[in-house]
Amino acid sequence: MKTWKRTTAAAAVALMASAALAACGDAPDEDNNASEKSDFLPCILSDAGGFDDKSFNQLSYEGVQDAAEELGSEYKEFESKNENDYAPALENFVAQGCDAIVTVGFALSAATVESAKANPDIEYILIDDAADNDFDGTKDAENIKPILYDTAQAAFLAGYAAADYTKTGVVGTYGGQPFPTVTIFMDGFKQGVEYYAKEKGKKVELFGWEGNDKGVFTGGFDANEKATNAAKQILDQNADVILPVGGPIYQGAITAIKDSGKDVAIVGVDADFFETDPTTQDLVFTSILKNMKISTTEAVVAAGNDEFDPEAYVGTLENDGVGIAPFHNFESKISPTLAAELDEVKKGIIDGSIPVESYLNK
User: Fold this and answer.
1) Fold identical between 9-149+293-315 and 152-290+327-351?
2) What confidence category does residue 106 fall into, taking pLDDT thresholds of 50, 70 and 90?
3) In CATH terms, is domain 9-149+293-315 a member of 3.40.50.2300?
4) Concatenated DSSP letters for 115-144?
5) What's the CA gap between 281 and 287, in Å, rounded?
6) Residues 6+ apart with CB under 8 A from 149
7) Which residue of 161, 202, 205, 352 is surrounded by the most CB atoms within 10 Å?
8) Which residues, listed in sequence order, are joined to residue 268 by a DSSP beta bridge?
9) What percent of the chain clears pLDDT 90, i.e. is strictly above it?
10) Would the pLDDT of 77 be above 80?
């Protein structure tokens, strides 16, 4: 296991204080299961969504916490407020002697690559991005492990289910910005809706996403008026199932639904909204899951055990890296045959008889 000198810690702390970038968070102490304390230091940097986004930042953060507990180590964290925080926070992680640095989200890709190139002895784990900023098909630094998710596969199942459930014959989606890790959900959802309509001979319309970056977007990932207005656009088309893609922007859908007084269900992303945000329990139909907590834990533990594997991980239905959540309060409202149909569709996606396109397999 790596051993890092901590002689720069005091200077690093002072630097971070002056920059208002105080990384915090110590891992569990004597209560952990490890027989002795490890000097391995994992660190995690959120994007602007923060660790309480009920979504991918939170899941990745919990993954680092679990890894630190398993390893018997401390950990450091920093919650970004905006993109200007990324590079300075990474510099301070390096100064503090972080052995592995987890960065969450595609927005941190460029800063992560820059830091990784400057610090080849540190192991980086980049969540939800391939670290290929020059788009040449290969990652830009050898000491980065990309963790990716083919969420189009799971979104296909959610689209199929939404098409089966809708009473109005209209479902909708909107996103934060048209980045591949956002539109991959919308692509899969669209394909699932279209597959259902074709197989069942039922007309189901999808509003909010045509493909090729043509759709409804808020322009960011904040739970603000733009998110609410985007959701209202979908509801104005008579949609009764809505998929918001982009961290906290789902809160705009909740506001729009409550304001409308309509009976509309939402589809969550990344985490099971029913579990992470109890305010959604009467509205959430299902959620499209990325098992980010587990994959983050595994990557950090491997690094802590000197078994870091820089090859990209891609979560799929086959390896349980992606999936859909239970229907929870909607179980009594769905078709009695839907669960069995979804099992068959899932099998078809896994064996390739039902192709699902995404930016990861084009």
Assistant:
1) yes
2) confident
3) yes
4) HHHH-TTSEEEEET----TT-SSS-S-TTE
5) 11
6) 128, 290, 292, 314, 315, 321, 322
7) 161
8) 287
9) 78
10) yes
Interval 266-288 mean pLDDT = 94
* 322: three-class secondary structure by DSSP: strand
Q: Does domain 152-290+327-351 have CATH number 3.40.50.2300?
A: yes
Nearest of 243, 238, 230 to residue 193 by alpha carbon: 243
Domain assignments of the chain as residue spans, ordered by start = 9-149+293-315, 152-290+327-351
For 291-335, how does the pLDDT look when each residue is reduced to its tens digit (9 = 90+)? 999 999 999 999 999 999 999 999 999 999 999 999 999 999 999
Q: How big, in percent rounded to 5, are the helix, strand and coil portions of the chain? A: 40, 15, 40
Show the tokens assigned to 231. Answer: 């959701």
pTM above 0.85, yes or no: no
273 contacts: CB under 8 Å, gap ≥ 6:
54, 250, 266, 280, 284, 287, 325
CA pair distance 322, 326, nearest whole angstrom: 13
Q: What is the pLDDT of residues 146-156, one digit of tens each?
A: 999 999 999 99
Length of the chain: 362
DSSP string covering 253-285: HHHHHHHHT---EEEEEES-HHHH-GGGTTTEE
Strands 322-324 and 313-315: unpaired
Q: E strands within 139-203?
A: 144-149, 170-175
